[in-house]
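Bit of a strange request maybe. I'm writing a small parser for structure token strings and I need a real example to test against, not something I typed by hand. Could someone generate the tokens for this chain?
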Amino acid sequence: MRRDKSILLLVTAVFIWSVIQPEGYLIWTMEVLPAVVVLIIVIATYNKFRLTTLSYIIIAILSITMFIGGHYTYAKVPLFNWIKDHFDLNRNHYDRFGHFLKGLFTIVIREILIRKTPLTKGPWLYAVTLSFALAFGALYEIIEWLASIISKGGKASKEFLGTQGDFWDAQWDMSLTLIGSIIVLLTLSKLHNKLLGVKR
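Reply from user aminoacidic:
Good idea to test on real output. This should exercise your parser:
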């Protein structure tokens, strides 16, 4: 419990930093809202449905990633601007990095499936977990598309989309989420089983 509180304090500190003079408050709200909603749900259900520390660390990493993206906008994160200039890249890749990291959320999905459904092992657990991960990735792209339509292509929506002129940006984002999810399942499932006390 002490470790979980430390994780929450870290996330809260980054959240407070992100809200201080961001690139724009509208784009900040659009970028951080999903993370805030997830955090509220996690905090509200903490006593009734406590996740493993691994899942909380993953939720913290993804939230912090979104808070940083909300503060600078995904196309202007300084470290990735430096990488872009240093390696002569054609775009700031923080957005791509963020979608790849979303593959980490696969562990949270996996934990809920193991604890709340008959799927506790085997290929179906992997298949359903990956399907949910890809579905969440696609849903996020749909939300970005709807935001662009509702705002009629305004500055905030363009920054929220973060395509940086790439026609295939949505496909890249979903593909990277899928790749990240597969890598996470292959590398963290054994540790996750140990934390859950699942016998394989």
